[in-house]
Design brief:
Elements: H1 3-17, H2 21-41, H3 46-60, H4 63-76, H5 89-113, H6 119-139
C-alpha cells in the first residue's frame, strides 16, 4: 500500500469503526493476525510451514467477518471512548476473547516453530478463534 491508500483506509476505518471500543477490538484482532503471519514467515522447515499455512489462511479469512461485526456494533452503539454499552457487553467480551485467543494461537505457532509444541496445539487454538467469531456474529442476529 502507498501513503495515499493508507490515508484513505484510515479515514474509512474512522468512519466505519469510530475511534472507540469497536475500533480497538478490530485492531486488536488485526494485530494478532499480523503476529501470526510474522511467526509464519520465520518458519524454516517446509513441513511445518505447510501445516501452518492452512491455519493462517483460515484465521485471515476471519478478518472481514470481525470487521463486519465491529462495523455493525459501531452502527448500533457508536463508540468514541472505552465505555462498554451494556446491551453489547457480551459482544465486547467475545470480541476481546477472540483477539486474545488469536494472540495465543500466534504464541502456539511460535512454540511449534521452536519445537516446543505440535501443530495440533496451534489448530486447537485457531479453532477457538473461529468459534468465537461465529459466536460474535450470532450475537448480532
Amino acid at each position: 500500500m502507498g501513503l495515499f491508500s493508507d490515508l484513505r483506509q484510515a479515514r474509512k476505518d474512522d468512519t466505519e469503526l469510530g475511534q472507540g471500543l469497536w475500533r480497538r477490538a478490530h485492531d486488536r484482532f488485526r494485530r494478532g493476525l499480523d503476529r501470526f503471519h510474522q511467526v509464519l514467515e520465520g518458519v524454516s522447515g517446509d513441513a511445518l510451514y505447510g501445516q501452518l499455512v492452512p491455519v493462517a489462511d483460515e484465521l485471515a479469512a476471519l478478518l472481514p467477518r470481525i470487521r463486519a461485526v465491529c462495523v455493525t456494533a459501531q452502527r448500533i452503539a457508536p463508540s468514541e471512548g472505552l465505555d462498554i454499552p451494556p446491551e453489547l457487553a457480551p459482544l465486547h467480551r467475545i470480541l476481546s476473547r477472540a483477539g486474545n485467543d488469536l494472540a495465543t494461537a500466534a504464541q502456539a505457532a511460535t512454540l511449534a516453530r521452536l519445537g516446543s509444541t505440535d501443530v495440533d496445539s496451534v489448530r486447537r487454538r485457531a479453532a477457538v478463534v473461529v468459534s468465537l467469531v461465529a459466536e460474535a456474529e450470532e450475537q448480532l442476529r
